[in-house]
Amino acid sequence: MRVLGWGQRVDEAEFVSFYQSRADALRDTAYMLCRDWHLAEDLTQVTFTKLYRVWHRLDDRAALDQYARKVLLRVFLDERRRPWRRETSVEPHSFHLDTATTGGLSAVEASFLHQALVRLPKRRRAVLVLRYWADMSVEQVAETLDCSTGTVKSQSARGLSQLRDELERTRVAVNCGDGVN
């Protein structure tokens, strides 16, 4: 144990163990939200920094994954509101997702899915990522997003419908030779 300012105690070994076991999964979730590996790394680091600062107050160790995803989501939403984050990258996104991360999709299919996902509104994208990527229950997503379960259900249905429409547009554009934005 190490004593921090203000008398706080942090079990660093436990925190380091949690970091080592969950950093990759949180980074992948961050990538699903923002579709930028550099930003995903930043979001993950900010998330773990925030977790470290309150680690001594986290009593329910069984709910750490859910709490970490909640912090990550809030960091993502806060980061998107900052004016200096409104710049756009001119280099193409590279896909580092392996087969396990993409659920067995090919690189092209994963690319189309990510392009369609990033076109969704942030909150709707967050619902889909938490619900279907992070495999959270409707209740867990509602708690994470501070909304009702009905909102999660309706946003899931609308998000999936919009995602299907985006994927169809992408498929038609590719088949017609127009390319994808």
TrEMBL record:
<dbReference type="InterPro" id="IPR036388">
    <property type="entry name" value="WH-like_DNA-bd_sf"/>
</dbReference>
<dbReference type="InterPro" id="IPR014325">
    <property type="entry name" value="RNA_pol_sigma-E_actinobac"/>
</dbReference>
<dbReference type="InterPro" id="IPR014284">
    <property type="entry name" value="RNA_pol_sigma-70_dom"/>
</dbReference>
<dbReference type="Pfam" id="PF08281">
    <property type="entry name" value="Sigma70_r4_2"/>
</dbReference>
<protein>
    <submittedName>
        <fullName>SigE family RNA polymerase sigma factor</fullName>
    </submittedName>
</protein>
<feature type="domain" description="RNA polymerase sigma-70 region 2">
    <location>
        <begin position="19"/>
        <end position="85"/>
    </location>
</feature>
<dbReference type="InterPro" id="IPR039425">
    <property type="entry name" value="RNA_pol_sigma-70-like"/>
</dbReference>
<dbReference type="Pfam" id="PF04542">
    <property type="entry name" value="Sigma70_r2"/>
</dbReference>
<dbReference type="InterPro" id="IPR013325">
    <property type="entry name" value="RNA_pol_sigma_r2"/>
</dbReference>
<dbReference type="InterPro" id="IPR013249">
    <property type="entry name" value="RNA_pol_sigma70_r4_t2"/>
</dbReference>
<keyword id="KW-0804">Transcription</keyword>
<comment type="similarity">
    <text>Belongs to the sigma-70 factor family. ECF subfamily.</text>
</comment>
<keyword id="KW-0731">Sigma factor</keyword>
<dbReference type="InterPro" id="IPR007627">
    <property type="entry name" value="RNA_pol_sigma70_r2"/>
</dbReference>
<feature type="domain" description="RNA polymerase sigma factor 70 region 4 type 2">
    <location>
        <begin position="113"/>
        <end position="163"/>
    </location>
</feature>
<dbReference type="InterPro" id="IPR013324">
    <property type="entry name" value="RNA_pol_sigma_r3/r4-like"/>
</dbReference>
<keyword id="KW-0238">DNA-binding</keyword>
<keyword id="KW-0805">Transcription regulation</keyword>
